[in-house]
Amino acid sequence: MAAMRSVSRLLTRRTLNTVVTRGYADEMSFTFAAGNQVFYDAQSVRQVDVPSFSGAFGILPKHVPTLAVLKPGVVTVFENDGKVKKIFVSSGTVTINDDSSVQVLAEEAAPVENIDISAAKEVLGKAQSQLSSATTDQQRAEASIAVEVGEALVKAAE
User: Fold this and answer.
1) Which residues form the F1F0-ATP synthase delta subunit C-terminal domain (predicted)?
2) Which of 19, 52, 104, 118 is deepest in the core (most CB within 10 A)?
């Protein structure tokens, strides 16, 4: 009981109202864009799974507002009609707003079905070669990032 009183003192009326009014909805507004293409433009979807440096996580309607950095990997979108779309991202951000809207902004993105496995392996091979021949810290850092993206690209294509 004492713990409940402590918690209730910590919550202001405003945050308490936010907690109480947060409920479940069946859909959320989703925007997903990259420098080369807009994949979703404020469309209604059921769920989105994203790869994040803090760990992969799923986003459902009325998710807690969040800002996260995307790591190379696959964003999976569960559409309202039951279709599932998988899109590879090299990096980017995800923003989850209090109004159940979600925005994914990717540096580069491509539908998984459009990824050529041999081209992905070639990208990875070149990145690994650059890493082994890197002589400066900057070159090693850039090559390490390219290897990480290449590995995720190959994994997505398999």
Assistant:
1) 116-156
2) 104
CB 109 within 8 A of CB 87: yes
The structure tokens listed for 120 are 């992905």
Domain count for the chain, please give it.
2
Q: Alpha-carbon distance 26 to 28, whole Å?
A: 7
Handedness of CA 96, 99, 100, 101 (dihedral sign): negative
Same-domain pairing of 127 and 81: no
